[in-house]
């Protein structure tokens, strides 16, 4: 037998690559959301006028199921039209792109279309839950004040939002190699 069972355990050396990227500030995330909202209002309001939904809204006829479904379809469709390509390609909405922040995985890798769909599907989906939607959306948003600066939709999708501008300024210092010993 070549193995001495009485010998002390030997540790294997593993090199872990840590790709550190600074998290986006809460203010940048808020500003990006405001920019996205302004852009979406600019896109959806003309569609509401052309479809006749604005007349129903102004007349107070917003309780019909057809109005709510058409309104949701226009809003979600507009969001996908404006941001879909950039989200899948870069992990950024127009607002995030303007402020230099980006959605990435927890390992700082680009996110897939499936992850983007899960992230925004959760955030948008909970807002359409009758009676509780507004409260659940508020709770989702308030999670930004946790230590990890991640909203509930980030936790569900396994994403985080990082500051790309700071990352580009510090690129040479971000990749670290750490020696880890395992037993």
Automatic annotation (TrEMBL):
Ranges of residues in domain RDD: 24-158
Membrane topology: Multi-pass membrane protein
Cited InterPro entries: Pra-immunoreactive, RDD
Lineage top rank: taxon: Bacteria
TM region positions: 30-50, 62-88, 120-145
Assigned GO CC terms: plasma membrane
Localization terms from the record: Cell membrane
This protein's UniProt keywords: Cell membrane, Membrane, Transmembrane, Transmembrane helix
Protein's UniProt name: RDD family protein
């Amino acid at each position: 037998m070549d193995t001495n069972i009485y010998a002390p355990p030997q540790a294997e050396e593993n090199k872990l690559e840590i790709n550190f990227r600074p998290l986006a500030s809460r203010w940048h995330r808020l500003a990006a959301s405001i920019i996205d909202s302004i852009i979406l209002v600019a896109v959806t309001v003309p569609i509401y006028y052309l479809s006749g939904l604005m007349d129903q809204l102004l007349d107070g006829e917003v309780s019909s199921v057809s109005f709510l479904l058409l309104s949701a379809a226009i809003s979600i469709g507009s969001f996908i039209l404006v941001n879909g390509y950039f989200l899948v390609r870069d992990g950024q909405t127009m607002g995030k792109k303007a402020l230099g922040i980006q959605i990435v995985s927890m390992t700082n890798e680009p996110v897939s279309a499936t992850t983007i769909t899960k992230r925004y599907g959760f955030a948008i989906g909970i807002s359409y839950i009758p009676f509780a939607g507004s409260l659940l959306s508020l709770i989702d948003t308030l999670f930004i004040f946790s230590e990890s600066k991640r909203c509930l939709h980030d936790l569900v999708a396994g994403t985080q939002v990082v500051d790309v501008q700071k990352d580009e300024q510090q690129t040479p210092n971000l990749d670290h190699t750490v020696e880890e010993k395992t037993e």
